[in-house]
Amino acid sequence: MALAWHLESRPEGEPTADNFALKPTELPPTGDGMVRVRNLWLSVDPYMRGRMNDVKSYIPPFQLGEPLEGGAIGAVVESNAPGLAPGDLVLHMAGWRDEAVLAARSLTKLPELGVEPQLFLGILGITGMTAYFGLLDAASAKDGDIVFVSAAAGAVGSAVVQIAKAKGMTVIGSAGGAEKCAYVGELGADRVVDYRAGPILKGLGAAAPDGIDVYFDNVGGDHLDAAFALARNNARFAICGMIGDYNSREPAQFRFIMRVIAARIRMQGFIVFDYQPRIGEFYAAMAPWLKSGAVQSRETVVDGLDAMPDAFLGLFSGANTGKILIRL
Amino acid sequence: MALAWHLESRPEGEPTADNFALKPTELPPTGDGMVRVRNLWLSVDPYMRGRMNDVKSYIPPFQLGEPLEGGAIGAVVESNAPGLAPGDLVLHMAGWRDEAVLAARSLTKLPELGVEPQLFLGILGITGMTAYFGLLDAASAKDGDIVFVSAAAGAVGSAVVQIAKAKGMTVIGSAGGAEKCAYVGELGADRVVDYRAGPILKGLGAAAPDGIDVYFDNVGGDHLDAAFALARNNARFAICGMIGDYNSREPAQFRFIMRVIAARIRMQGFIVFDYQPRIGEFYAAMAPWLKSGAVQSRETVVDGLDAMPDAFLGLFSGANTGKILIRL
After folding, report:
1. CA dihedral of B3, B7, B8, B13, whole degrees rounded to 10
2. Quick check: B239 contacting A, CB < 8 Å?
3. Which residues from B are below 8 Å from A262, CB to CB?
4. Sign of the four-CA dihedral B237, B241, B243, B249
5. What residues of B are in contact with residue A216 (Cβ under 8 Å)?
6. Which residues of B touch A253 (CB under 8 A)?
7. Between A and B, how many CB-CB pairs are < 8 A?
């Protein structure tokens, strides 16, 4: 028997501990092409909140009374699939539980990069890939560029700051509030703009008196407009997210969008999954940076499966910083 | 003695005939490195209106009491410069007059493409280059693409429509009013949207049920927003002008800009002068299209230097269509 967190009820507004129930779960036999996996690390992510609602999205909702899902790293304990042996470390989506039987084709064997395995749930996973390919491919950022990153204290933004510094760029990060701004400075950003302290246009203008060559956009809205205003010739914008606009009922307004022409700005929207074929290039660049400490991942580690709902609820009260992980 | 139109007074609001005076002008001797040129064709362009004001811009204002300037094609009649001989046809900026003495370095000898020389003032000049490089380079448009062009009845837009058709693309053009729309259809556009007949978003949606791969933007505003809404994956936008936003006091609003991410849209602002080094490539492509009739230039030709101010004033009453030229 495995133990797995189930969706006991759907939240109304902010989720509570009552929405979750830890229950024993019968595991199926390890049939042909299957492996049994003992989980070591479970990922705790804000997007899981969306899956608790019964609403169609880019990812299906959790089912009432069924086990929850999420990213996890586990070790194979029994294998009936070629190429996988007991002890192999694998990445898969059967989190929120201690053990699972899975089809081999639904998991990824971790490459041997000599780094801690839980990094594949964050900086060596989707988060890091988003930062790496957005900055270096979508925005074609290069040595010497002046790079502006919004939401620089966030998971993706903090990776962008560090990768840009590792690549010899000048980095300006924006974040909201003194604590987050201090963190962005610790990450190595040359200058930090607190967007709560005044209009971002004014703050960025002071931080980038010579303008910017690259903008990594996580928020849209007035940050994007400030980047239009301050773009140097042939500036490149990677458009990763527009969190500020998702919930707004008003259309986004841009006073400086016509600078796209005079400054020859290139804006490039991108989706990280398009870069999956280039994951080898990503690992080859990131592993040395992680080993040397040039790029670091801030983690909050919580021990034990029991603690997972509380760790998840903590996301919404801002109790934790960096990547939240459950260690089993 | 030459005859030249002078700026007699600055207009208040719309220019009038009183602002211009035709006066004899002493020509300097044809010194070392100079040529004397007899003008054959003079260009009449809306941008000249801006130069009549005493306002700093990307191009200096006309000076009160001095001869006006503008694009012109002339024949060398006397040369004191190497590489230029009587009879050579040259492109220069000493328009609004019949004859001028010019430094050889301030003019361009027309390449021998076997086409009528006045085309170098329009479809083989800045207008055509803007359309050609904007479409094929900034937007990377290619055979099979569905291309949307705003202001498709305008000088640049009508060239875009024809080049896109010559390159095997499907073309949707927008224009205001039935007459202009009919003209866009004559140019070969597959579908035409009259933006005065209803919201451009609705019109474009009906004209492009499968979406668009390329948008050539001459206007910004709601046209650009409609292009965001209807962009297919990996769509490319060439941002050439935002005429609709230049005079607006309200910031541009975009309801669909976040589609840049999901559709992986690339927006590229551009300035035609950056493509000057590639003018040979442009001539090599355009000359055959002009000879075969695949690309045509609509011209309104007015005879005689005397008629130039009236031809210019006609720009503002919509009296003419296509490129306005004075033939001497």
Report:
1. 140
2. yes
3. 269, 271
4. positive
5. none
6. 251-254
7. 89
pLDDT at B46: 81
Instruction: Spell out the per-residue pLDDT of chain B, length 328, in tens.
Output: 899 999 999 998 889 999 999 999 999 999 999 999 999 999 998 888 888 988 776 678 999 999 999 999 999 999 999 999 999 999 999 999 999 999 999 999 999 999 999 999 999 999 999 999 999 999 999 999 999 999 999 889 999 999 999 999 999 999 999 999 999 999 999 999 999 999 999 999 999 999 999 999 999 999 999 999 999 999 999 999 876 555 556 778 899 999 999 999 999 999 999 999 999 999 999 999 999 999 999 899 999 999 999 999 988 776 666 789 999 9
Hey, what domains does chain A have and what are their CATH numbers? 2-122+297-327 (3.90.180.10), 126-273 (3.40.50.720)
Is the Cβ of B267 closer than 8 Å to some Cβ of chain A?
Answer: yes
Using an 8 Å CB-CB cutoff, list chain A residues near B137: none
Return the closest-CA partner of residue B228 out of B170, A254, B236, B141: B236
Q: Is the pLDDT of residue A58 over 70?
A: no
Of B258, B262, B271, the CB nearest to A261: B271
For A261, which of B242, B254, B266 is closest by C-beta distance?
B242
Confidence of residue A128 (pLDDT cuts 50, 70, 90): very high
> Residues of B with CB below 8 A from A267's CB?
260, 265-268
- Comparing alpha-carbon positions, the chain A residue that sits nearest to B258 is A242
Interchain contact A265–B (C-beta under 8 A): yes
ipTM, 2 dp: 0.86
Q: Say if B251 is an interface residue toward chain A (CB within 8 Å).
A: yes
Please report residues of A whose CB lies closer than 8 A to that of B234.
none
Q: Which of A253, A259, A271 lies closest to B251 in CB terms?
A: A253
Among B178, B166, B170, B123, residue whose Cα is nearest residue B149: B170
Q: Given an 8 Å threshold on Cβ–Cβ distance, is B261 in contact with A253? A: no
